[in-house]
Design brief:
alpha+beta; two-stranded antiparallel sheet; about 15% strand
Length: about 350
């Protein structure tokens, strides 16, 4: 590509030089000729021989001048074009590596012109692809690990029953049912996550009463919250608050946030749900008392299969997918999500446009 482009640019410059020389040549032969003849007649000088010598000398110096111009411009153009095309050449080489799955190389940015902007955008693209590749590999490993655990347990119980080591009692079948349910739930969560990535294609955004939506989900989780003696405070939600969202997707977001708070709030803890008006957005926050999340976990809390509290995650049955689904759905609504630690509370929030209907 570089050689082809260099020769194209070089040929274009030669054409420009040739055009200039042609214009000067024609001007000398016709325009200067008339002016020269007028001068010769004015001063009573025979124009024939003098005119021939004049034209020959002009042509001779024009040829030498043109050759010198071609040489100097060729040298100048070579260094300039090499400087311009080097990033493009390297970009072509790196593109081949990217196609092969290698995202390690970066293009050095030496200018602020269009080439520099292109190199900067290309570097951002390769960084994004590298990040996605890492997430994909991590997701595959984590998903395989999550699927392997219940499958191994089921296989172990079945082999034990077959070898008559464990009796086929109702207790054994209950354990098998729990493991198969856990496996089915994990597969269901993975399907939800895959579907969440494409929700922007079929959103049905309507005006939703926030307090009613939260109260409905609160009733769904009432027994589980009561079992852990978790106090829920919804006084921070104004009864006059309305938001625009897809009702089914918003219900899924609230369900996952309730489930997350239920899992990671200690018995006797507290859950506060409140909203804030921030410019043109409405931010809804789930703030639960918890000691499981650490500050170093915050940048990764919405990543797929990430769990801030590793030692207790299996006790709660979480696979680190719920908040990833929340993030995908909210971003499909042109909103954003976040998490912060304030005192003893972990505050997970999402913000949606207050008056945009898709």
């Amino acid at each position: 590509m570089r050689k082809h482009l260099i020769w194209k640019l070089f040929g274009l410059n030669l054409m420009l030089i040739a055009l200039v020389v042609l214009i000067v040549w024609v001007s000398t032969d016709y325009l200067a000729k008339n002016y020269f003849m007028v001068l010769m007649q004015k001063y009573h000088i025979s124009p024939t021989e003098s005119h021939r010598m004049f034209v020959e000398s002009v042509h001779r110096y024009l040829i030498w001048g043109s050759l010198l111009a071609v040489f100097i411009s060729s040298l100048f153009n070579f260094f300039i074009m090499r400087r311009i095309l080097n990033p493009l050449t390297r970009m072509t080489r790196i593109t081949k590596k990217v196609a092969a799955g290698d995202f390690s190389d970066q293009i050095p940015i030496t200018t602020r012109d269009e080439i520099g902007q292109l190199a900067r955008s290309f570097n951002r693209m390769t960084e994004g692809l590298a990040h996605l590749q890492k997430l994909r590999q991590t997701m595959i490993v984590d998903a395989a690990h999550e699927l392997k655990t219940p499958l191994t347990n089921i296989r172990g119980y079945l082999e034990a029953i077959d070898d008559q080591v464990v009796p086929p009692s109702p207790e054994t079948f209950r354990l098998l049912q729990e493991e198969s349910t856990r496996l089915a739930d994990l597969v269901s969560d993975m399907l939800k996550l895959a579907r969440a990535g494409g929700v922007s294609l079929n959103l049905n955004i309507i005006k939703i009463h926030l307090l009613e939506a939260v109260t409905h989900l609160l009733e769904v989780f009432r027994l589980k919250l009561t079992a852990k003696s978790i106090q829920v405070d919804t006084a921070g939600i104004d009864p006059r608050c309305w938001i625009y969202a897809d009702p089914h997707k918003l219900a899924q977001v609230l369900h996952n946030l309730f489930q997350n708070a239920l899992q990671y709030t200690d018995s006797g803890g507290r859950l506060r749900i409140f909203y804030e008006e921030l410019g043109e957005n409405i931010r809804v926050t789930f703030a639960n008392t918890s000691t499981h999340l650490k500050p170093e976990d915050l940048p990764y809390i919405f990543e797929r299969f990430y769990r801030g509290e590793k030692s207790r995650s299996r006790e709660y049955g979480g696979a680190g997918i719920g908040l990833a689904i929340v993030k995908d759905i909210i971003e499909a609504h042109r909103g954003n999500v976040g998490v912060q630690i304030v005192g003893e509370e972990v505050q997970v929030w999402f913000a949606l446009p207050a008056n945009v209907q898709g």
